[in-house]
Give the backbone structure.
Amino acid sequence: MKRLSILFTFFLCLGMSAQVKVEIFESFKLQERRDVKYYFPEDYDEAKKYPLILVLDGEYLFDQVVANTKFYSRFHGMPQSIVVGIEQSQNQIRLDDCAFEPDSGLPTEKAKKFFEFLGMEIIPYLDLNFNTAPFKMVVGYDITANFMNYWLFKEHSLFNAYINISPDLAPEMETRVPARLGSFDKQIFYQLILEGEKNKNTSRILAMDKAIKAIDKETLHYNFYQYDGADHISVATYGIGKAFDNIFAMFKPISPKEYKTQLLTSDEPVFDYLATKYKNIEDLFGFKKDVNLNDLMAVYAGIRKKEDYDSLKPLSELCKKEYPETMLGFYFEGEYFEQMGEPKKALRTFEKAFGMAEIDFLTKEMALEKIDALKADFGY
């Protein structure tokens, strides 16, 4: 294992631009060697933490998951992530990896070893050698989608998010999964994707969907999509992007819809809405997200709309910290003093803003207009 780690780190340093590496992982649990694919962000940074996405059926799903990960992280829909693909197609080994007993519906002895291989070897190896965040996701299809549900049977779920594509359900899974999802107090994202074409599992999957929807728990984030145009094969290409959309909705910048339906309608101070949003992101994903300029401007617009001028002060302090070279923080602080009836402080603060770099819609001309208006109004 140590030799593998050294080799992998060496290849990573030499070929980070390639982004994807395939390595042979020698498993003590399985007593066999397995092909594993790794994707790291192009600008992987030792100082940052990255959510981990485990992809079963790696030959089929890995590239799709990586493509969605790159697209969504590029356009701020999700954090940059590490993706790990477990290859299982050779000699149909997936059937042994994920087999279950026909009577009990529990994993076979070989499947238990595969379960331990993933949870006790692959993930700890990555946690030890790379900057993985606490947030972990698993993706599977058909029999591997059913298999991922066994992590729900543990007292503490290893994964925070499950993308379950047309699962080939083991006995009683349509009742066991809802029961387990309803038992967790931690945040769990569960995405269930089904094709429109009926198969032997359709009625049971729909029963499972109905049971999950009946769970009333704030910590459970559940979405179900049935794609009428898909069959059991093509459904594997459907829904992954939509699942990402749901799971990482909190991580996205404040949208016009969120601004209108949540920020403006919230009873809490406008700045507190922003602080709560970023605190929830940190609690869920396990790392601090840099404050997005779009979010700062949305909060500023909300402050003006709701006339919550007290929120300008903490907003200005945050802007000074996040965008220290720009006029953002001092301009907002100047407005705060202006609204609080302290023209001398407002004037001095706008003068500081005037000497700093412009950003977004804020220009030196705007700061100068504020300065001139204050001098005219108060005879300075």
Q: What stands out?
A: Confidence is low (pLDDT under 50) at residues 1-18. Strands lie at 20-27, 32-39, 50-55, 82-86, 132-141, 161-165, 188-195, 220-227. DSSP finds 15 helices and eight strands in the chain. The chain has two domains: 2-251, 256-378.
